[in-house]
């Protein structure tokens, strides 16, 4: 079934005109006609069955038939990573969306080559991934800041979990034990740090370990590409009970 | 450091002539000269420091200086998946290599579109991924067979763990409990099944659950693309103690 993310608010029986892009996708690309159904959803209203009333290449008219999935917010899960090559960054954002990240923060580190990210493009990648994987919400893409700035502005409610390939990392089970044995830690939201190709510098590791409650996570014996580390790391964080 | 997988057997002080492809890569692409070092490795001899004695575009002469990593075999870990689009299949093989799969079996199922795989190309993808991620061995790519044939020839020492998105799956923790409470199960090698886009058919699920000791694994609440499911599933299997 075709799923589209809605900026509009969704109410049963409402009729509304789609924007250019969604109209084009439904009526031209997917060739939906009058009476055809699709799913229209967002994080505030849940998922609705929608019907094409008037197909149109640029401003299709639709009607919301009724809610088919209630509102269900993703559990907050943060990812901090460095920009990679264009396709690889797209890929990392797509996969992080499938793995449930709710906030994707880009950071510039000592060994980061790229220093810009195209937030708008990546937000579109995240939207498409959310449509495909049956999420109701889209992760928020945050523009690049220096690691230093990210640490100075560190939100108190996050628990930094830093992927480490140099042997200093603990297994996810050991981290789960630390978390469950500490009331404060237990209430924090996980935030995964993935270093750039070349890893974090020693100074950066020091700064990261100085953060309250920081944990180093072992992703296994092999050296993972950054985009693989995103998926492996988030998969492991998803095994934490919370 | 440049790492290359060696078909030759490796012994300290041995001199040998590289093949066309490796000579071209080292001397033309990477521009290594006389006296430059690289790493040469395989699963039988470990990893050696090697030096270019005579650079040459097609038959470079090298000398093995000494072993720098001992032999270390990957723990056996099997993956059964359906062929995807070309780039996506490459991707799945690359990531499965990084996640430690030792045998990648391609299967044809009721909802599989592609029915061929280019074993040679995928074996090259696996080689390159192994070189990058510091593995000493390369996963074996097995040519496509029908799921039926795979099940008829099912090796006794494997434990089928089937990724399921329809709610029948258990958490990796529940599966770990089952495994640790059963002596026979505990001795088996995990084999992860990832269904095609569209999933396994009901009949296939029945056939899979009829296998001895089969377990259904929950990969989380979202619908993952097949290639994402490969990484997430293998990451979870890697948390099993064995």
Walk me through the structure.
Two copies of one chain form a homodimer. Chain A is α/β, with parallel strands linked by helices. Chain A folds into two domains: 67 residues, Hypothetical PUA domain-like, domain 1 (Ribosomal Protein L25, Chain P, Beta Barrel); 160 residues, 3-Layer(aba) Sandwich (Alpha/beta knot). Chain A is 32% helix and 26% strand. Chain A is built from eight helices and eleven strands. The first copy, chain A, has a six-stranded parallel beta sheet. In chain A, helix 2 runs parallel beside helix 3.
Q: Provide a count of the helices of chain A.
A: 8
Oligomer: homodimer
Q: N-to-C SSE series of chain A? A: EEHEEEEHEHEHEHHEHEH
Strand percent estimate of chain A:
25-35%
Biggest pleated sheet of chain A: 6 strands, parallel
Chain pair with largest interface: A-B, 24 and 24 residues
Q: Going across the major beta sheet of chain A, what is the strand order?
A: 8-7-6-10-9-11
Which spans of chain A have pLDDT < 50 for at least 5 consecutive residues? Answer: none
User: Could you please say which CATH topology of the largest domain in chain A applies here?
Assistant: Alpha/beta knot
- Class inferred from helices and paired strands of chain A: alpha/beta
Q: Report the span from N to C terminus of chain A.
A: 31 Å
Globular, elongated, flat, extended or rod-shaped: what is the shape of chain A?
elongated
């Amino acid at each position: 079934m075709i799923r589209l993310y809605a900026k509009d608010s969704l109410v049963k029986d409402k009729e509304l005109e789609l924007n250019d892009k969604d109209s084009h996708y439904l009526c031209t690309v997917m060739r939906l006609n009058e009476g055809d159904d699709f799913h229209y959803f967002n994080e505030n209203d849940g998922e609705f069955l929608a019907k094409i009333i008037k197909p149109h290449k640029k401003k299709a008219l639709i009607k919301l038939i009724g809610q088919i999935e209630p509102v269900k917010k993703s559990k907050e899960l943060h990812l901090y990573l460095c920009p990679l090559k264009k396709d690889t960054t797209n890929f990392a954002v797509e996969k992080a969306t499938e793995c449930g990240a709710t906030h994707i923060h880009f950071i510039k580190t000592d060994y980061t080559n790229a220093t810009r990210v195209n937030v708008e493009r990546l937000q579109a990648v995240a939207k498409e991934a959310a449509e495909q994987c049956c999420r109701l919400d889209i992760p928020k893409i945050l523009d690049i800041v220096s690691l230093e700035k990210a640490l100075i502005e560190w939100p108190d409610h996050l628990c930094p979990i830093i992927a480490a390939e140099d042997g200093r990392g603990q297994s996810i089970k050991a981290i789960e034990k630390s978390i469950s044995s500490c009331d404060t830690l237990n209430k924090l939201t996980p935030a995964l740090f993935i270093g750039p190709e070349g890893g974090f510098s020693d100074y950066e590791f020091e700064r990261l370990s100085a953060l309250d409650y920081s944990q180093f996570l072992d992703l296994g014996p092999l050296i993972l590409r950054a985009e693989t580390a995103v998926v492996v790391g988030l998969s492991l964080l998803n095994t934490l009970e919370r």
